[in-house]
Specification:
By secondary structure, this protein is an alpha+beta fold. The chain is built from 33 helices and 25 strands. The strands form five sheets. It has a 17-stranded mixed sheet that branches. A hairpin with a 2-residue loop joins strand 14 and strand 15. The radius of gyration is 27 Å and the shape is globular.
Length: about 750
């Protein structure tokens, strides 16, 4: 079963979807069938330094003549991002057409910022958000914030009446000449749905709670009865419940478990105060909807991110890699940076042929109406006026509250509502404030930051073969949800197809005379099932990889920006290490080395963010992490370079230099303790994080014990499912990927 399952995963017939099994996975022909574009380039550089990478972006934008296409998960409004945004506005003033695609979840809180860029570009710059809320989600938000009306009151038929009212409200909507229902999108804002979604995407649970409160006519004082409400921490906890309940109701895997833990904590911590709110939200959620399964699926993929990193200028200059547009990726540690500064890798190419396919690929994403919204549409279905004015609301509440009172009476609520309405800034005023912030940030950057000038990039070999790959949300012409573990290419996960094929190709080509290396140099090492199975087949000898060494280089717990990944990854790594030790000495087994970046004493904390893979003589540079999320959930892109021996040699020398500087520690001989000790260590690390963020020390011993019990189950599940995957259990793949896809 073990060898058969891996054979099915890695055979070129399954991966490429070809009619026969004659093609060898990883040949140039096979890569070409899965690649979005096959490119040639006049010149290319691998950019390892943050200042160098930002200078490259600026130079491309400043030199643009005709067009700029941009796709980034994060496009921030901080110091370096403001400098780049100003350069885009200057390009727009020269008549350059600019299209900026960014992730809805990451960008929504800066909606005014992006609207300002559109306004000040003279019509030359357009912004769109990826992974808009679906029609199902908007209808759910409307249901949650829609009262039954005075006539129906709290009658038993209230839910049915609300469903009927919503069906009537949404039935006639058409978008682009099609029924909105057929596209599963909507631009309506019904009841408080717009404010609820604004709170959701801005991660502002207070606005979500306000939307529910207003729509349902809830009395906050009544909901808080039975417990002291004077503690600000208690009020803050109440405000978070709306979002938490939603995640617990519709979430899956780790996300749902985390939400249930939070709810259990909230109810244990605040008792009577929480129960009425929890009950109120439960009674208002649309549990009886006929299409509840479809709605659950939409909510389950609400965090399906646009994870592309793409700057495409004049259809001939390409910059991709791991860096987003944010100070953490474009500055060195200093006064202008916050907690994390990332080490990353980008690739800049002067494309001489094949560029039309890049343009067409961007166009497909840009025009994918099922998931992409214009800013006008965003403002229609999720207006941000209330979100932008929450500060004014808080000021109004404070000014209207009677001295010495800890809870508001009805007169004070009316007073605050009136003061809030009077204080609302107009959209134009908010856009003007965003423009002022841009100018202020640019001035501060120019005054206080001095980029390094002694950086060194790595040169791409002339004549290198370049294949551009994407992971896309398309399956047979329609939006896909997730992916089939054994058929990644057929489900639009072309990067993972290429990785699996390249692993097989590396083993096939390696010999005693020409041994080969596989290097996974990646920020997050929490492999999806198919990659875990592939590594297992290389380490147990069922695939002949006798002359291959596998090196994993990733973040330590001290350097990562996502502690949860490392906590869970330790259990997958434990299963993998036990499996390879159990097959030590097997003929055909590859060597294995595991290394982690370190936080060096007296030096600024740097976190690895690169997504680089070396497969023998082929180097992949892109945006895809070596984790489940990058396979199941997100879009990604990258370049696989072949026939570039000088670049491979230079990059390998750079990585060795990081080892010699002490930045990387080899843990191969002692990957981890026994399972009992690992559980003790994992729980201790988790509770240390709880203590770090629970500064008011509200978690008592019983609640800590409950949390540890949940975490113990999760760690055990990761460990056992990883073992099952390595043993060839095909069913474990779906369970494992579903469990961890939101991490």
């Amino acid at each position: 079963m073990n060898a058969i399952y891996r054979s099915l995963l890695l055979t070129g017939c399954l991966l490429a979807g070809c009619g026969g099994c004659g093609n060898t996975p990883g040949t140039t022909e096979d890569l070409g069938t899965q690649a979005t574009a096959t490119l040639t380039a006049n010149a290319g550089q691998v950019l390892l330094d943050n200042d160098d990478a930002f200078a490259s972006k600026l130079a491309l934008v400043n030199g643009a003549r005709d067009s700029i296409d941009i796709a980034y998960y994060i496009f921030d409004s901080d110091y370096s991002s403001s400098v780049l945004a100003e350069a885009l506005l200057r390009a727009a003033s020269r008549g350059v057409r600019i299209r900026l695609l960014t992730d809805y979840s990451a960008a929504y809180s800066q909606l005014d910022w992006f609207s300002m860029l559109e306004r000040d570009s003279g019509g030359q710059l357009e912004v769109r958000f990826y992974n808009r809320p679906t029609r199902n989600m908007i209808m759910d938000a409307a249901y949650l914030t829609l009262g039954c009306g005075e006539a129906s009151g709290q009658r038993a038929d209230c839910p049915a009446q609300k469903f009927a009212d919503l069906e009537d409200a949404f039935a006639a909507e058409r978008i682009d000449g099609q029924a909105a229902e057929a596209l599963n999108i909507s631009n309506l804002s019904v009841a408080g749905s717009g404010d609820f979604l604004a709170g959701l995407y801005a991660r502002n649970a207070e606005l979500m709670a306000l939307a529910v409160q207003e729509g349902q006519g809830l009395d906050p004082a009544a909901l808080r009865s039975g417990a002291a409400a004077g503690n600000p921490a208690q009020k803050e906890s109440l405000q978070r419940l709306g979002k938490t309940w939603l995640r617990a109701r519709y979430g899956s895997g780790v996300d749902s478990l985390k939400a249930r833990i939070e709810l259990a904590f909230a109810r244990a911590l605040y008792g009577e105060q929480i129960d009425p709110v929890f009950g109120a939200l439960a009674s208002y959620m649309p549990l009886e909807r006929a299409d509840n399964a479809a709605a659950r699926r939409d909510w389950d993929y609400q965090s399906e991110f646009l994870h592309h990193k793409l700057l495409w200028v004049d259809a001939r200059h390409l910059l991709i890699g791991g860096r987003n547009v944010q100070d953490s990726y474009h500055l060195q540690p200093g006064e202008l940076t916050e907690k994390y500064v990332f080490n990353d890798t980008d690739l800049a190419l002067a494309v001489s042929s094949g560029g039309a396919a890049i343009t067409a690929a961007f166009e497909r994403l840009w025009q994918f109406r099922t998931m992409v919204a214009t800013l006008d549409e965003v403002r229609a279905h999720a207006p941000n006026a209330a979100l932008a004015s929450l500060a004014a609301l808080k000021a109004a509440e404070d000014s209207c509250r009677a001295e010495g009172e800890s809870t508001a009476n009805s007169a004070e609520v009316d007073c605050a509502a009136a003061a809030f309405a009077d204080a609302l800034p107009s959209l134009e005023q908010r856009l003007d404030l965003a423009a002022t912030r841009l100018r202020t940030n640019v001035a501060r950057y120019q005054r206080d930051y001095r980029p390094a000038t002694d950086t060194a990039a790595l040169t791409v070999d002339p004549g290198a073969q370049l294949f551009y790959f994407e992971n896309l949300p398309f399956h047979r012409g329609a939006r896909s949800y997730g992916a089939n573990d054994s058929e990644p290419g057929d489900w639009g996960k072309h990067i993972h197809h290429a990785w699996l094929a390249a692993l097989a190709r590396t083993c096939q080509r390696a010999s005693a005379e020409q041994p080969a290396r596989v290097v996974i140099h990646n920020a997050y090492f929490l492999l999806p099932a198919n990659l875990l199975a592939a590594l297992g087949s290389m380490l147990d000898g069922s695939r002949d990889c006798a002359h291959v060494s596998i090196e994993v280089v990733t973040n330590s717990f001290a350097t990562t920006d996502l502690n949860a990944v490392n906590l869970l990854a330790a259990w997958q790594l434990k299963a993998l290490d036990e499996y390879r030790r159990g097959h030590a000495g097997s003929a055909g087994a590859a060597d294995f080395r595991y290394e982690e970046y370190q936080a060096l004493p007296g030096q600024a904390l740097l976190s690895l963010h690169s997504k680089v893979m070396l497969f023998g003589d082929a180097l992949f540079i892109g945006s895809a992490n070596a984790d489940v999320r990058s396979f199941i959930m997100d879009t990604n892109n990258g370049i696989l370079l072949q026939n570039a021996p000088q670049l491979v040699s230079a990059w390998s020398a750079w990585l060795q230099q990081q080892r010699e500087l002490g930045r990387i520690r080899d843990l191969s001989s002692d990957i981890g303790p026994g399972t009992d000790q690992l559980m003790t260590n994992s729980l201790a690390a988790m509770m240390a994080l709880v203590s770090k963020y629970d500064r008011q020390q509200r978690v008592d011993p019983q609640q800590a014990a409950d949390l540890q019990a949940h975490a113990r189950k999760l760690f055990t599940a990761v460990y056992r499912e990883s073992q099952a995957i390595l043993q060839g259990d095909a069913g474990a793949a779906e369970r494992f990927n579903s469990l961890l896809k939101v991490i």
